[in-house]
Amino acid sequence: xxxxxxxxxxxxxxxxxxxxxxxxxxxxxxxxxxxxxxxxxxxxxxxxxxxxxxxxxxxxxxxxxxxxxxxxxxxxxxxxxxxxxxxxxxxxxxxxxxxxxxxxxxxxxxxxxxxxxxxxxxxxxxxxxxxxxxxxxxxxxxxxxxxxxxxxxxxxxxxxxxxxxxxxxxxxxxxxxxxxxxxxxxxxxxxxxxxxxxxxxxxxxxxxxxxxxxxxxxxxxxxxxxxxxxxxxxxxxxxxxxxxxxxxxxxxx
Length: 253
Fold this sequence. Notes:
Blueprint: H1 3-18, H2 27-48, H3 56-78, H4 82-105, H5 109-113, H6 117-129, H7 139-163, H8 168-176, H9 185-190, H10 195-215
Helix pairs in contact: 1-2, 2-3, 2-6, 3-4, 4-6, 6-7
């Protein structure tokens, strides 16, 4: 067996197993890392190996379920807003049912009917939790976020990936860089050096947008942190039941 294939597969697959284990303690960065690895692993296999990727879809879905299951467990560990938890629970089991049906039938449209809205909803809530208490999230906020993620973000993404079976990296190389899929990435980028100043400009623009939006957000309930154990309910002024008396299902009751 090709040693390059063994090394690449070990690193990529190992990352998909190990990184999600950090989600309960560091939910936002660990989930983002898992999402990025999930997005690029197929391209890495295609670039660095000659592996047969015929069974990639099942491999990918199994590891998706693995890391999202850990994220769901993290909601039970960390979240104190019952309505947000119940919403995430519905989104998780709804997608899980769709993934199961897809594996049984192979009908790709099921992944569009059962989109993975749980993933981005989890990221949204964890983004809030970096600075604010979950008690700030009303039912309107929660349902609005879930609906926006479902309709505006996930439906187009699921259609792109699973229904039309398009690849982001292939589309970028062919339609943005103007190179053929047979060309190496080194050649494609070398012939399109203009992409670097464009990416820098986009990064600067994004930074200004984030700064502007951040300035309009309410004052945080605690200093920004990505560690779920670095902030607790008793750090905010609104009194809660003692932690020892509060079951996680009771949330803010």
